[in-house]
Design a protein that fits this description.
522 residues; mainly beta; 7-stranded mixed sheet; 43 strands; 2% helix; globular
Length: 522
């Protein structure tokens, strides 16, 4: 792949002086809809008359595998929502980024995996969203309100949305089998074949080959206001299996875990070798799992049990890429909470000399919190927002604290220490906060549960990774709908999709929205 990327850049350089090595690019500009539940923010879609266009290609630097670097830029006028560019460098798997301004609003769009080949005009659709504002995705009429759905970005940039609790029965929230695919380039969402199992609170992640992995979850769960752990489920409702969706065939295949506990709200991450690590998760000490497993679709799809999480339960843990060794395999940092106070661990990837090791990170000034929002920034920095302090085996009221965990290590990524420093405050104290780190420089935190009684927040908090302080919260017309138990995914390193949630007063929310942070326009 690296030799191919290098060859592509050489082709582009050789063709800078001639038309033969550059090809036409044409795209139709599609504008996002106003926020769901308007009037909120803009109520009409304003077009732009000119745009800035940049094309990025995979880096040829071995240390920047997967990083896109700019190879072309221009400014073009927009005519009848169509943009034509006469000559663009030939390259495979490029990303086309477009920005434009109208009425003081910056519009932004990005299309990945575009192949610009010799002898043809490359035509794409590109949906622009408003920077710093919400945009609504109109779902099919059968897309009902739901919480704790599975949301995964696929290798082609589309988003799989599967399951989630979409109804109640007998005091329980009941999961759905329904599944959908959202195309961020066009803003369209379509229904696909139902999942094999009805799942909520499951793990979901896209595989390198385009398929989607769905792990664990439950078919039913109960919410009890003011309980020490407000969510609960029974062993009969937990799934001890995984299933894989193949968009090429619109079919699923199913595998059992073989004597491994089920995973409820697990931490899930993709290693550089393509394998998937699933670890921990649970709604209470009684239902949490200590197990971890890996699944590698490129090695016959074997499920490997990775041993216990050092006899600790983990609640609301996040697995975040941490570093890579000389073989190019990554580690992940597991940040979460348990009943004994361990705050963070590092998992070593397959084929590493310490395969499967969960190394304890000694954290100074640490405060034990469960169900926090956790995201990783560049420079081995991890932002931890909100969460519920532990009160023995129960949860206490959520906090508004935002902390930055900075990890140091030796050359083998061992002997880790972490220093926790204050990083501002959330707008509201909250747990079940969801966060993302667009472009790795700043963190965005959305919504959350503000009390054990079920109150929820409409906050969006942006933490500036450059100044290490919080940026202003969104207010007024651009405030988010109050919600918790929603699911999110990060699209193309910059835009966040928000699926469903509960607003605390009107039940389950059936809207799907996207949000592009303000700092992208700087």
């Amino acid at each position: 792949m690296k030799r191919l990327a290098a060859a592509l850049v050489l082709v582009w350089l050789a063709g800078c002086s001639g038309q033969s090595e550059r090809e036409p690019l044409e795209f139709k500009v599609l504008f996002a809809q106003p926020p769901c539940g308007s009037p909120r923010g803009d109520t009409s879609t304003t077009t732009v008359t000119s745009v800035s266009v940049k094309v990025f290609a995979p880096s040829t630097d071995p240390d920047k595998e997967g990083v896109l670097e700019e190879i072309f830029s221009t400014s073009k006028s927009v005519s009848n929502s169509v943009v034509n560019i006469d000559r663009v460098p030939i390259a495979d798997k490029t990303a086309v980024v477009v920005t434009g301004d109208s009425g003081g609003t910056t519009w932004y769009g990005k299309k990945a995996n575009v192949d610009i080949k010799k002898g043809r005009t490359t035509a794409i659709d590109l949906r622009l969203t408003r920077v710093g504002r919400l945009s609504c995705v109109t779902p099919p009429t059968d897309f009902t309100g739901r919480i704790f759905a599975g949301v995964a970005v696929m290798s082609d940039g589309r988003v799989f949305i599967g399951g989630g609790f979409d109804q109640t029965a007998g005091g329980d929230f009941v999961a759905s089998k329904s599944a959908y695919i959202y195309n961020p380039a066009t803003g369209e969402i379509t229904r696909v074949k139902d999942m094999i199992e009805a799942r909520g609170m499951h793990g979901a992640i896209g595989l390198n080959d385009g398929r989607v992995l769905l792990v664990g979850g439950v078919s039913r769960a109960k919410f009890t206001a003011n309980a020490g752990f407000p969510w609960s489920t029974t062993s009969a409702n937990r799934h001890q299996n995984l299933e894989i969706y193949d968009p090429k065939t619109d079919q699923y295949s199913e595998r059992s875990f073989n004597n491994v506990d089920s995973f409820v709200l697990p931490a899930i991450a993709k290693m550089l070798d393509g394998s998937i690590l699933v670890a921990g998760g649970g709604l209470s000490p009684q239902t949490a799992t200590q197990n971890a497993l890996t699944f590698n679709p490129d090695l016959g799809g074997d499920i490997q049990q990775e041993g216990k999480l050092l006899d600790n339960f983990w609640f609301g843990a996040s697995l975040i890429p941490y570093g890579k060794n000389s073989t190019g395999l990554t580690r992940v940092l597991l940040v979460g909470a348990n009943t004994t106070g361990i705050y963070a661990r590092v998992y070593q990837a397959q084929s590493d000399k310490n395969f499967g090791l969960l190394e304890t990170v000694a954290v100074t000034n640490g405060t034990l919190r469960a169900f926090s929002g956790v995201v990783g920034l560049t420079g081995k920095r991890f932002v931890i927002a909100g969460g519920f302090p532990m009160n023995g085996n129960n949860l206490a009221a959520p906090v508004d604290t935002v902390d930055v965990l900075t990890v140091t290590d030796n050359d083998d990524f061992l002997n880790l220490t972490g220093t926790l420093t204050a990083g501002g405050k959330l707008k509201d104290p909250a747990g079940f906060v969801l966060g993302h780190a667009p472009q790795g420089q700043s963190a965005v935190f959305i919504g959350g549960m503000t009390s054990l009684a079920g109150a929820v927040s409409g906050q969006v908090m942006i933490f500036d990774g450059t100044t290490m302080t919080e940026a202003p919260n969104l207010t007024g017309d651009e405030a988010f709908l109050p919600r918790a138990f929603h699911r999110t995914a990060q699209l193309l390193d910059d835009t966040v999709i928000i699926v469903g949630g509960a607003d605390g007063t009107q039940g389950l929310f059936d809207g799907i929205e996207t949000f592009t942070p303000q700092f992208l326009s700087r």
